[in-house]
Amino acid sequence: MSSPRELSEARLHARSMCELLGIRGYPAQRVVTTVSELARNMIRYVGEGTMRLGLDLDTKRLTIVAEDRGPGIAELESILAGEYQSRTGLGRGLIGVRNLADEFDVQTGPSGTTVTAAFRL
């Protein structure tokens, strides 16, 4: 994911997946917004990355995994505490994703960042 066009395609893919699974209304919007926020962050702060959407029928969860090979998120604790003021955006992307998802995890370091957001179906 490296361009606004790819961000748009990711949103459409997420919406289509929700429709196929019978997820509609606010639950679908939670998934699509999460994809959008994670893609925006990758494009804005790293320039590129990958995103996977997966379905686990055993646990009845839809999972989004966003990965990049950037320098890591230096201010992660401040960001998640709502104390960080972004110079390029509202600074609410990761907080918003955390609030939308049923399960949320961030792993970050000098070789990249992986954000996982899961939604119970």
List descriptors.
alpha+beta; 4-stranded antiparallel β-sheet; globular; 4 helices; 43% helix; single chain; 121 residues
Provide a short characterization of the protein structure.
The protein has 121 residues and is of the alpha+beta class. The chain contains four helices and four strands, in the order ααββααββ.
The major β-sheet equals: 4 strands, antiparallel
Order of SSEs: HHEEHHEE
The radius of gyration over CA amounts to 14 Å
Which shape, going by the Cα principal axes?
Answer: globular
Quote the beta fraction: 25-35%
Helix run count = 4
Average pLDDT works out at 91
The SS-based structural class is alpha+beta
Oligomer: single chain
Helical content, roughly?
Answer: 40-55%
Topology diagram in text:
Layout: H1 4-20, H2 25-46, E1 50-56, E2 61-68, H3 76-80, H4 93-100, E3 103-109, E4 112-120
Antiparallel strand pairs: 1-2, 2-4, 3-4
Helix pairs in contact: 1-2, 2-4
Task: Report on this structure.
There is one protein chain. This protein has a four-stranded antiparallel beta sheet with strand order 1-2-4-3, with helices on one face. A hairpin with a 4-residue loop joins strand 1 (50-56) and strand 2. The chain has 121 residues and is α+β, with helices and mostly antiparallel strands. The radius of gyration is 14 Å and the shape is globular. The protein has helices spanning 4-20, 25-46, 76-80, 93-100; strands spanning 50-56, 61-68, 103-109, 112-120.
